[in-house]
Design a protein that fits this description.
The protein has a six-stranded antiparallel sheet with strand order 9-14-10-11-12-13. By secondary structure, the protein is of the alpha+beta class. It is globular, with a radius of gyration of 15 Å. Helices cover 14% and strands 29% of the residues. It contains three helices and 14 strands. The longest helix has 11 residues. The protein has a single domain, classed as endopeptidase domain like (from Nostoc punctiforme) (endopeptidase fold (from Nostoc punctiforme), Alpha-Beta Complex), CATH 3.90.1720.10.
């Protein structure tokens, strides 16, 4: 359940995604080693998230941490690296590690209105896809961009597919058919 209180989104239950784009309940967000949260994502009067507080976190550091999790297995509904991650559980764990609160489910990222063109993506931006059924144009999978402008677009994600866990993937024909949008989290990526 989500409430907009004074420009802040307050999440009372947390959801996770799976490869089909379905959601399930989860016990909560992953803790962060520094035991601090930078701030709740800010929403405008229509309820759209227009800013996620990233503090002093550098997108390059976030990508380095995300890459340190390559090989962690896929586990539906989990944000725990000792058990595995689903796609949004991986995103939650990576961002929460730096004290950055993000929506828990992949579908909740659709309310973030900081879209960027695919050719303008930078490391730390997020890429959203449909679930495995690309005819259902609803977000059901996501990853973190790890490539720089001018390079082949690559992202890191937790997949229930062949790699079955956290892996790096180029934006190939299969994922391009499922592509919905890319969103910017880090304001320093605007420079």
């Amino acid at each position: 359940m989500r409430f907009n209180i004074g420009g802040y989104i307050v999440l009372l239950s947390f959801l996770s995604c799976n490869s089909s784009g379905e959601s399930s309940s989860n016990a909560g967000i992953a803790g962060n080693p520094y035991n601090k949260i930078i701030g709740y994502p800010k929403a405008d009067s229509a309820g759209y998230i227009t800013k996620i507080s990233t503090g002093k976190t550098n997108p390059a550091d976030l990508v380095i941490f995300a890459k340190s999790l390559i090989g962690v297995p896929y586990k539906y509904g989990s944000t725990d690296p000792t058990q595995g991650f689903d796609c949004s559980g991986f995103i939650t764990h990576v961002f929460n590690h730096f004290g950055i609160l993000v929506p828990r489910s992949s579908t909740d990222f659709t309310i973030i209105h900081r879209g960027v063109k695919l050719q303008d993506t930078r490391p730390g931006d997020l890429i959203l896809f449909t679930g495995t059924d690309s005819t259902i144009r609803k977000v059901g999978h996501m990853g973190i961009i790890i490539s720089s402008p001018g390079q082949e677009v690559k992202f890191i994600h937790s997949t229930s597919g062949k790699a079955y866990g956290v892996t790096e993937t180029p934006l190939n024909k299969y994922y391009m058919g499922r592509y919905i949008k890319t969103i910017r989290v880090f304001p320093q990526n605007d420079k």
